[in-house]
Amino acid sequence: MRRAVRAKWAVCAGAVALAATACGGGGGGTDTSGVVSSSWGDPQNPLEPANTNEVQGGKVLEMLMRGLKRYDPKTGAAENVLADRIETADAQNYTVTLKPGWTFSNGEKVTAKSFVDAWNYGALLDNKQKNAAFFQYIDGYDRVHPDHGAATAKTLSGLQVKDERTFTVKLNQKFSSWPDTLGYSAFMPLPQAFFRQHDAWLKKPIGNGPYLVDSYTKGTVLKMRKWQKYPGSDPARNGGIDLRVYTDNNTAYTDVQAGNLDLVDDIPAAQLKNVKKDLGNRYINQPAGIIQTITFPMYDPKWGRPGMEKVRRGISMAIDRQQITKEIFQNTRTPASDWTSPVLGAAGGFKQGLCGDACVFDAAKARQLVQEGGGLPGGRMTITYNADTGSHKDWVDAVCNSINKTLGNDKACVGDPVGTFADFRNKISARQLTGPFRAGWQMDYPLIQNFLQPLYYTNASSNDGKFSNPAFDKLVNEANAAPDTRQAVATFQEAERILAEQMPAIPLWYQNGSGGYAERISNVSLNPFSVPVYNEIKVG
């Protein structure tokens, strides 16, 4: 699950073992003639596939790893990569057959065991992996990752290696769309070196994708280099990618203009008025599977008690999305009217207006609901956000201004910045926030399920607000068990209607992917997840 900053930053830290780049520009200590430099931010967690659930780490894993499937960088469709076949007769028992000829960059073969061991590691409670819940539909998950107490098994009973290229998966319920989830990074294979020399692997991860990790200095730069022996059909078309850490994307943007940086993949809001003039056709603006929301801490009684749904709905109706997206984002955002994304299309689960009146600006109704619900807790609310990237201050201030104007109180809402994205995410994970906070979601795979279950299902791994509703959970389970996509989508949309009633998170706007690049590179595009297709970029 990808946290959007999605979605995209950090202070120049002390160099460890590398000739570091300067913060906001400068070159590395190696030949960079064929290397692309791109803005980036330190990931929250180590780069283990099952432990990376935000965008910055996800960018690295997309270059470093290849799994059973990959999402087409143009259409988002799940296409086989290492999988030769994924077969089932009942949507519950699957047989996976791998293509031959794949190895990790250290020479190890990629085998059925590479997947089974990786998935068992990711699921096991003891390993504390952020994405463990992705394995919850595999039989035996309740024993390796119980809701309470210690694990009573070390491996998933639903996984069985049959031979070097074949393994079977038994799910604990029917899940017809399960194969389409397998392009997500949590399902990537791992070499035996990961288990035998774990600390060394974390310092310099080994994968089977088109790039190798050359070096990483936290707070400064992560250097990826082309793997010359990559066996896939999508090799790197450049010599490598230097992911440079920026605390301020305005600095990254000006560095692109000056030729000190090749690519910025998140145009700051303050630059949107000028970007077309500044960059011309080197500006990218396209729809992406991203939604921005404000999430409430439902674990805090002040916000989660019965009756507060009126206040939460009232706050939603106090936000003038149309005005904010026009003035702040120059129409690179679209006011949200559900909890998914238009890139899914109707067949994928998007339904315009599903949120109903709760997502429509109505000052009078907003005041009425807030009053009926008992008012803002303590008469005041804060919206916490990370201050290091994404120009969040501008829109948070605009949202608060809209709320304040609606409620007739210029102190009702105020922004509460946290210095870095990593610190912000750590506070959320530790449940240290007692007021609403900004949230963004970049789809992991193009299914409505991915916009709902990870975020709002009870105890789901990215359910940061800790919303819990038995009726919602029941509908999600029924949708996953539906025999076909059409029935699944209809049931998921019923679950969305519960979100409209309870409003555990306020949908704000659907986000376009944006980026800009320097003249020395070409063939630059963003995938439907708004991430640059790094391997396709050409230098010169």
Give an account of the 3D structure.
By secondary structure, the chain is of the alpha+beta class. Helices cover 28% and strands 20% of the residues. It has 17 helices and 20 strands. The strands form 6 sheets. Strands 1, 12, 13, 14, 17 and 18 form a 6-stranded antiparallel beta sheet that branches. Strand 15, helix 13 and strand 16 form a beta-alpha-beta unit. Helix 9 runs antiparallel to helix 12. The longest helix is centred in the C-terminal third of the chain and has 18 residues.
**Secondary structure tally, helices:** 17
* Uncertain segments: 1-30
**Gyration radius, rounded:** 23 Å
| C-alpha end-to-end distance | 35 Å
Q: What percentage of residues falls in helices of 4 or more residues?
A: 25-40%
Beta-strand proportion: 15-25%
Characterize the largest beta sheet: strand count, sense, and whether it forms a barrel: 6 strands, antiparallel
| Mean pLDDT, all residues | 91
Global outline: globular
- What is the β-strand count? 20
Brief descriptors of the model:
single chain, 540 residues, alpha+beta, six-stranded antiparallel β-sheet, four-stranded mixed β-sheet, 17 helices, 20 strands
Layout of helices and strands:
Layout: E1 2-3, E2 35-40, H1 55-64, E3 69-71, E4 78-80, E5 83-88, E6 93-98, H2 112-123, H3 141-144, E7 159-163, E8 166-170, H4 192-196, H5 198-203, E9 211-217, E10 221-226, E11 240-245, H6 249-258, E12 263-264, H7 275-279, E13 283-295, H8 301-304, H9 308-317, H10 321-327, E14 333-335, H11 345-348, H12 363-372, E15 381-386, H13 392-407, E16 413-418, H14 421-429, E17 437-442, H15 448-456, H16 470-480, H17 485-502, E18 505-517, E19 521-522, E20 538-539
